[in-house]
Design goal:
338 residues, alpha/beta, single chain
Amino acid sequence: MSSGVITTTRAVYLRERPSDGEPLPEHFEVRDSPVPERTDGQVLVRNLFMSVDPSMRGRLATSELHYTTNFQVDAPLDGSALGVVVEGNREIPVGSYVRHRLGWRDHAVVDTAAATVIDPRGIDLHHWLGVLGQTGFTAYSGLVRAGEIRSGDDVFVSAAAGAVGSIAGQFAKLLGASKVIGSAGGPEKAALLTDRLGFDAGLDYRATPIGTALREAAPDGIDVYFDNVGGDHLVAALSSLRQGGRVALCGMISNGGPDSPPIDHLMNCILKRITIRGFIVRDHEDLRPEFEDRVAGWLAAGELVAKSTIYDGLDNAVDAFLSMLGGGNVGKMLVGLS
């Protein structure tokens, strides 16, 4: 079965890998791309929004130290996207909204088995890539499963103005945390945490060493650390965690190098019986229905602030990616397409 009148689309290609690990605009290129022939087991999707995620940085290299595949030179990038079906089949009819993994292009031919049909429930579509998508689900499963959050816990979240962190802090409160502390880079982001997102304290790690700031904000310690950063933030949390504390290890976006803290700080885990649990969101799909029902309810009740930074058009997708890497986003970074 052909793809009808839509035979070409536009996609972002990787022209070359960054030689020093720092991506630049010249490493990418928007090109016309053929739309593959569609089979009965596939649907043609017009993408409406695409996700821009920190994990994409690691995929630009050749290292295998991550949980997905590397981007290929002279091939389109990929990532989470949400769109509307313009050519469907018996399983997914025309007009359905679907979430899938073929972002970074205006149109995509998607296997039916790889497309998740979304019922928007009256909620803005882009939230199904953010607070109701993998971003929110990462925050939820990290707190509930890896962090084993309990009513009355004191919680610390790093990179708390980012996509996952801004949601994790709010979820922690809604799940019964007594105090939620977040760290962010710069006074504006730190203030946003308390002024708009309901955190009890916002720490500007650029102004005060994070260990000092955390001790001042939580002089009696913390119970749970939701880690998006690693490095000095993890060291600070290990020092402040109480006996039996838990760490939900979500990401480590801080750069390694000669200034990285020594591994000796892990001695705190023994002395204070701390549990560190790394997690990958795809291992917790059994939580998805509970998560969607709970979060949709929180949104409808106005109990949740879902912040997004949205760039317009595929031509600005690389700018969105580079801005995110530089901390230019508040909440989820997205690109609106088509």
